[in-house]
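step: validate -> pass
step: tokenize input -> pass
step: predict -> running
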Amino acid sequence: MAKDNIDIIIKDNRQPFFMLFLFVSILILSNGCATLPNVSEMIDETPTAQEPRQIVSSKGLLSPEKSKAIMERLKRSVDPTDILERHTAVVESVTESPLTKGNKVTLLVDGPATYAAMFKAIQEARDHINLETFIIEDDDVGRKFVDLLLQKQAEGVQVNLIYDSVGSYGTPAAFFQRLRNRGIQVVEFNPVNPFKAHGHWLLTNPDHRKILIIDGKIAIAGGINISTVYSTRLSGRKKAEGAPLPWRDTDVQIEGPAAAEFQKLFLDTWQKQKGPELPGGNYFPDLKEQGNALVRVVGSTPGQSNRITFIVYVSAITFAEHSIHLTNAYFIPDDQILDAFAEAARRGVDVKIILPSTSDSSMALYAARYNYSGLLKSGVKLFEHRNALLHAKTAVIDGVWSTVGSTNMDYWSLLSDDEVNAVVLSREFAIEMEKMFVRDLAESSEIQREKWEKRSLFTRIREWFAHLFSHWM
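step: predict -> pass
step: emit ->
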């Protein structure tokens, strides 16, 4: 499960111990037998010369000739890489989400930048606001969002909210009732209370997506929840001893045809959760091209055939030829991802991974470190971010392929969550991603293999013990 708030139930010491036992038992029984698809087989079965079939413009599906011309121009802008053809072919074989052209993509590096963009977009909304989030807290940031959303609802802009029941477990019911009383439509995703379930009760399928859609034209997505912990900008200096660490996360703002793909995901979730009938609104307006980026919106839902984000990651790593620069909050990948990283490093790809040195889940931190030795031995370079609680889920590969989203590299995100990532094919956007990565590197310490192998036996035991539970993190 996403660790953002996984301890929210079990850390409440007012809950009896048997509730913890019951909760863990549910997790084991529901997730222990789930499996991830074999991406190697998909790659082998996908024709290597397949051309992109689904490039969509603001006017509809492009012809194969125009699609090919677009990809050829992009290929000429960077060093040769299979990620633009073979990877695209693999992804198109498993998803109906098209590659859309004509998008303006803005990198929102941290919480303050993301909230500023969100508030501006909400203030300018004229038709509707659709917000889907894992966590919305009753704190300064949450109340600021609520006040603005209520203001827009009063102005005649329809506001629709989906929040995850587990992620927002600590938020009082009165917080959401206030929204309902003022006309905002609210859906609780997979309620913790089975008597409030919208059908099949499935506590172990949280909605980990974070999406804001304005008027069907602007989408903001990534890893940032609605919470004060994201509101502090990193200063580059160490926090005072005992002071809470700022959370380091990233979102992306997309304007153009790809906004419609986020809208489809939101409305599909609303329908599956049996939300109330949405008031009339122009949810799919005519969209004009706003920029030059190619964007694919990748949504995952539970089920082996629906783990699209996992397939996207394994395939992208497999086809990388020059560089893989990844940042991830909860790094507990399966063997396919670990093998793909190791193979990439062995064939000379510059593989650098930035991970947290401090986490809100100590078990996740030690489970991640269990895999360090094998990765270091293969030539992967590992770094741990200092002075921040790293929560970002981003990657840039071969200077042209980038992703920003909600998906962690852990079993819960890869197997059980509803997740969403934006995959961007753009040299210009990749340059911005690389700049962000370099800044994060400057705030990180490299894990040296020789020193790592000298860590204590007690530390190794903690890592081994945490690894035993990796399938439930």
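step: describe -> The chain has 17 helices and 19 strands.
step: cleanup -> pass
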